[in-house]
Amino acid sequence: MRLTRYFLPVLKENPSEAQIVSHRLMLRAGMIKQQAAGIYSWLPLGFKVLRNIERIVHEEQIRAGHIPMLMPTIQPADLWQESGRYNAYGPEMLRIRDRHDRDMLYGPTNEEMITDIFRAHVSSYKDLPLTLYHIQWKFRDEVRPRFGVMRGREFYMKDGYNFDLTKEDALHAYNRHLVSYLRTYERMGLQAIPMRADSGPIGGDDTHEFLVLAETGESEVFYDSAVTDIRLGEREIDYDSVDQCRAVMEEFTALYARTDETHDEAAFNAIPEDRRKQARGIEVGQIFYFGTKYSDAMGAVVQNAEGEQVPVHMGSHGIGVSRLVGAIIEASHDDNGIIWPEGVTPFHCGIVNLKQGDAEADAACEKLYAAIAGLGLEPLYDDRNERAGGKFATMDLIGLPWRITVGPRGLKNGVVELTSRRTGQSEELPPEEAVKKLAAIYAPHHAHLDDMREPMANRSFHTWL
Fold it and tell me: pLDDT tens-digit profile of 225-265?
């Protein structure tokens, strides 16, 4: 994309209404625009990040064997009345009536609707286990929406629901979701710590929240610092293996890590003093096992192998897709702007032309642009007739992980400058070597793409011939 043809309404000054870093930087970088309290339009740059996060979530859900679908945002109230949650949920639920005076609601979650779908189509244990999920806009009428997308009223969320014959099967689904969530967050450059939490209006006895440590987090958390050393990394996980998923679950939850709602002071004090940590955290996901709460209430039963009608065991699992945009910024920024991890960046690198209109510099930028695009990567070429300082400030603000700077002086020596946004370190390389290095950097992040089967670093760069 050429910046002269893109819509990127960056702001030079900090917006007065923004109280935390992610809100401030998302407004300044032209990612969002507030339309009403807690409701935002996602502008092109923000929308690209949102879609990249959504793609990772889809890929990891499908890898774990879960099946995507889509349910409506508007739900009939009678399903919630059937489960007993319609009056119990509280004023956060936006209740409405249609033109025929029927009670409806803008869904804050989908346990009732997915249970209704299940009971209409599944009647035998032979169709289990089953996990369905979707990614969809939700609405919760927060009394004080604030912090931008971190606590909005409308938000984009992945919510999934498992149906199993027994509690043991459902707990395997719980563990499987924990593993898939850990991999999801790590691919986004985040360390999200699973913490024992309160189930709230969803219900159930078993639940873990996933929290990213950040000073602006709304939750107070208490944890053993050793938990921050654990990573899933490149481990191959067999999601069908009960033992393997349980082992990962136990590894990541054996050490103390809890929100203030479930904090146990005695257990916390039993940790060696140098490892006892108290901090703030941002919730980015939660998993629940709630047994037969909804299947009992709504008649979601199957016939087991003995011919008996038994209620299915259920759980639900959510990831805040839009909230993750803010959480990543909170965890990855500096005084100059955002620092996107490679897995979610809106553009893979920026190209800065230091002397727009110079024939040699223009030609070199065009070749770089074509070579990078030929790899299946997206460059953002700042082809504006602006001063170098302004171009660098824009690139730092929007946070692309890598920048290639092209100028007449470097080209005379046959080199361009490749700069890491995270470290600030630069190196001078021949243009084709800079492209090869980008290819090697991004190859692991794009292994899911069919056209990336050939290692990117081994491709020929015909545009330089």
Answer: 999 999 999 899 999 999 999 999 999 999 999 988 889 99
Domain carrying residue 270: 3-337
Tell me which residue of 231, 214, 246, 39 sits closest to 141, measured CA to CA: 39
Query: Tokens representing 154?
Result: 């409308």
Partner residues linked to 290 by β-bridges = none
Dump the DSSP string for 160-176: EEEEESSHHHHHHHHHH
Reading the block at residue 185, the tokens are 């967050």
pTM more than 0.90: yes
Instruction: Write down which residue in 290, 306, 337 finishes a domain.
Output: 337
State yes or no: pLDDT of 343 exceeds 60: yes
How many CA atoms lie within 13 Å of 302's alpha carbon, on the beta-carbon side? 22
Which among 266, 259, 255 is positioned nearest to 229, based on CA atoms?
255
Name the token pair of 34. Answer: 């507030």
- Give CA–CA dist 426/239, Å, rounded: 41
In angstroms, the CA 79 to CA 93 distance is 14
- What are the tokens at 383? 């082809």
Output the CA–CA distances (angstroms, integers) from residue 173 to 205, 219, 315, in the order listed. 15, 26, 8
Element at 62 (helix H, strand E): helix 44-63
Token couple for 53? 């996060």
Give the tokens for residue 59.
């890929």
CB-count exposure of residue 437 (10 Å: 0-12, 13-18, 19+)? middle
Which amino acid, residue 81? Answer: Q
337, 369, 395: which is the final residue of a domain?
A: 337
Q: Is 364 helix (H, G, I), strand (E, B) or coil?
A: helix
Residue 177 predicted with pLDDT over 60: yes
SS3 464: helix
Q: Is residue 342 part of a domain?
A: no
CA distance 353 to 302: 65
- Nearest Cα neighbor of 459 from 61, 8, 104, 451 is 451
Domain match, 274 and 300 both: yes
Span 373-406, pLDDT tens digits: 999 999 999 999 999 999 999 999 999 999 999 9
